[in-house]
Amino acid sequence: MRRVRIKDEHLEQRIFLQRSAVAAFIVLGLMLLLAGRAVWLQVLQHELYAGKSQDNRAHPEPLPPNRGIIYDRASRVVAENTPAYQLELVREQAGDLDTTLAQLALLGLLEQDDLERVRQLVLSRRSFEPVPIRLQLDDERVARYAVHRHELPGVSLETRMARHYPFGAIGAHALGYVSTISEDDLARLDMERYFGTGVVGKTGIERAYEDELLGSGGYREVLVNAEGRRVDVQDGKVGQLRSRQPHAGRDLRLALDIELQRVAEEAMAGRRGAVVAIDPSNGDVLVLASLPSFDPNGFARGISRRDYLALTEDPDQPLFNRVLRGTYPPGSTIKPIMALAGLEYDVVRPQDKFFCPGHFSLPRSRHRFRDWRREGHGSMNMRNAVMQSCDVYFYRLANTLGIERIHDIMSRIGFGAPTGIDIGGERGGIMPSPQWKKTAFSGREQQVWFPGETVILGIGQGYWAATPLQLATATALLATRGRHYRPRLVRALVDPVTGAVEERTPQLLPPIELKDQANWEVIVDAMVAVTSGPRGTAVRASRGALYSIAGKTGTAQVYTVGQTENYDEKKIAERLRDHALFVAFAPAEAPKLVIAVLVENGGHGSSAAAPIARAVFDAYLVRGAS
Amino acid sequence: MYEELAASRTRRTVTATARLMRALHLDGMLLSGVAAVGFFGLFVLYSAAGDNTVLWFSQVARFGIGVAVMIAIAQVPDHFIRMVAPIAYVIGLVLLVLVMLAGDVGKGAQRWLDVGIVRFQPSEIMKLAVPMMCAWYLHQRPLPPSLWNVAAVLMMILIPVLLIAEQPDLGTALLVVAAGLFVVVLGGLPWTYLLGGVVVAGAAVPLVWSLLHEYQRQRILTLLDPQSDPLGAGYHIIQSQIAIGSGGVFGKGWTNGSQAQLEFLPERSTDFIYAVIGEEFGLLGLIALLAGYLFIVGRGLYMAAQCRDAYARLLSGSIALTFFVYVFVNAGMVTGLLPVVGVPLPLVSYGGTSLVTLMAAFGILMSLHSGRKLLGS
Fold it and tell me: Are A83 and A147 in a shared domain?
């Protein structure tokens, strides 16, 4: 039976009194502990802490490191540090931050749009740290600051080394730029190294080699008085002032040739597109041009929100790196490699002839895959098919090879995966296959691979998407007969203090061994015919060259033409016009330079893209731009 | 003759004040203690706030609101405070769940609930609602509580505490646990249970460790070795010890603490204001402050002992002891005895909600005390 208890008021009262008494003793004991702790700190350890409190008046002043200088392959300076005035703000001295910032905006020393960003930036750093709030002030603003400095507590004008790109927009997509450390950057950076450094590499080489370029920051302690202002001499005992020397970052020697880059960009001027030039013997990227470009000095100076929006909202997308991130159908530029695949898998011999009536149909299908030349090319062997860029020949070849073999060899060559160039942000493009289709689409009927989709891969259309850099690397494969290198922008790192040079060894990509080595020459011969043979598609652009060029033109469709329509260049809006492509290497017998050119909505590869490649070849091989 | 007259006039004034106090259900002794510490706190805050006089005036205003709340609650009949306990508890729980689902995030923690005009932390309600609920549950049952009743009370504490710890707000969770446990202990929790609880808690340390957020672990690790991270997590503790230690016996003087005034000391007007007192008023200042706190806690316990029923006793006792936990945890953390948990120094730290909660607690104490007493006063 359960025992029923009743409330006993007196018992409860007694228990409570007992317990409160115990609690009171414990409270008293702990209070004495707190008092004891105070005695320990304030009486017994007083000397120690009084000393430390004095030390606390020594404030660390940053000694920012010199950022590594970037030289191009001919030792021309492409990124340097120049002394510039910048405004810095120390939050704990600024009084009311919002008032100070508002005052700065009023004086035109900060843009109104930037106030919130600057506020967040200042709040995200430690209160005693000087935070750069405006980089690279011009003389007029320096003067304006000087007049109003007394109204701006905690704001100081400092001479700092600022990043400067003497070639401006030329090569901007390769070099990248530095800019103010943002809140997002704070999460990934070791801020200890950035003490006193307000900028960080944001894109391109500046970002990829940030660790090497930065070095590490140092500091020097200075005495501050009770108002936090710096004093040089202080009476009485002065604590030991500590300091740490900054370590300069390493200089970079690039593979890039800034003058050749200039040639490429000038040849492309006014158009949108990309030019890549690679030395096939080691993967050196001599030209990495994405047009339109932008001036990286704007970012290094601290770009205003308005200017930044102007760049991001420009329909020509000047900040978009087309070389690395633009993916386009490779078009006919892929035909030499497709022919090589046909030879390697023994589905065709160089001398085999096929008749081109101007269109191709799969068995039991009425769908006509049309040739770019409506009347057809007539009887075609491999050399003629490459030279004249006959579509029907390659429709047939792709259909015979089948999607599995095409996907297999093209993936080995590097399509569908990033090339691994030494700067970030690269895209891999798409090398389509039935497996790829299953993951890329969700609808069941969209996941089916149709035979027709294999056919159009023969001329580099369909889902196939490649970056200009991939096209250049694949062309380098032909130039080197299967032994091509990973593209690279940086050749060596140099320690400016010791002079120690760290050469980066070229990295061989997985080599392609053909069953019959002679097949390389078949393909190269056909590509030489493109620029020199009768009815070669790039003959005009190559006329008068003092060296032999092996090349291939390409035209990538943006707009799908209906079965019965004709493609009329004039009628189609500029943005829907075909992309023009050209890949080439020269001299054909001993290649020194591989080039890939893409002109967005340029129309034909022969007329729009090939002349740009020619200009770069001439500059490099004849005039010797370096 | 004249002196006698003056003396009798003084006597009359005193009696008049006492009468007014009784009419308003206020406890003169407790009120004096709170006022003494409160005024001292405002005095210190004026210095700690530096140039920021807006901050100081807003704290004065909050004090005013706090006193009004205290007086208002003291007028509430004690049986009503008993009756309202389960309702307050349930509302608090609902709000905590709401915070979890739709609360505002401030300083990385989801604690705030925005109801149009005011933003408040429902966890503050729980500081009072949990001990009220525990006392309400126990006062209907014979004491000392049975094992079953103890388990039930522990559940009542655990549910809101887990919700609060999840926000994450370790400081408040700790205070709520303390407030609830004090009720059970004062209610006569057998010492053997208490001992068992301590053993179990010790065994649970590894488990709790695995549940803590990274920053909370960091705080505990930093406590063990503050020098390991002098510019990061250890910065607070190192700077506050330097502030207190350099104050010496007599202090550097009001508004003259270089640690506090040069902003070496972080959060000097909120959680670390104890260090400002140590620096500017020295050992004497700290001892005076601790004496003030001791007086308030002692008076609170004395008032609890006088209460007529179990509910009033348990709740009052818990309020007095929880107040002490505030003091101990804050002072312990600032002097480097305990890890840094966000608990303000009661009646002194800048901050609205916790001040109002405290004053409301004192109001409850007075209301319960002014009900019919068991022992004649």
Answer: yes
Q: Using the beta-carbon criterion (under 8 Å), do A49 and B290 form an inter-chain contact?
A: no
Cα gap A219→B182, rounded to integer Å? 52
Q: Which amino acid makes up residue A199?
A: V
Q: Which of A144, A137, A132 is nearest to A90 (CA)?
A: A132
Any idea what DSSP says for residue A328? B
| ipTM score over 0.90, yes or no | no
Domain count, chain A: 2
Query: Cα–Cα distance between B199 and B192 in angstroms, integer?
Result: 11
A134: amino acid identity, one letter: R
Residue A579 pairs in a beta bridge with: A556
- Whole-angstrom distance, CA of residue A179 vs CA of residue B280: 44
Structure tokens that stand for B227 in this block: 């020098």
Beta strands in A422-539 (DSSP E): 490-494, 501-503
The answer to whether the CB of A609 falls within 8 A of the CB of A579 is: no
Structure tokens at A601: 């909505």
Positions of A annotated as catalytic residues are: 332
Q: Which residues, listed in sequence order, are joined to residue A465 by a DSSP beta bridge? A: A430
Identify which of A602, A605, A604, A586 has the alpha carbon closest to the alpha carbon of residue A594: A586
Ranges of beta strands (E only) in A204-281 are 218-223, 243-244, 251-254, 273-279
Q: How far is CA A83 from the centre of its chain?
A: 27
Kindly state whether residues A284 and A140 are assigned to the same domain.
no
Interchain contact A43–B (C-beta under 8 A) = yes
Predicted confidence (pLDDT) per residue in A206-245, tens digit: 999 999 999 888 888 776 654 455 655 444 434 456 778 8
How large a percentage of chain A has pLDDT more than 90? 55
| Candidate from B51, B249, B313 with C-beta closest to A43 | B249
User: How many other CB atoms are there within 10 angstroms of residue A75's CB atom?
Assistant: 9
* Whole-Å CA distances, A425 to A200, A326, B369: 16, 11, 71
Say if residue A264 is in the same domain as residue A223.
Answer: no
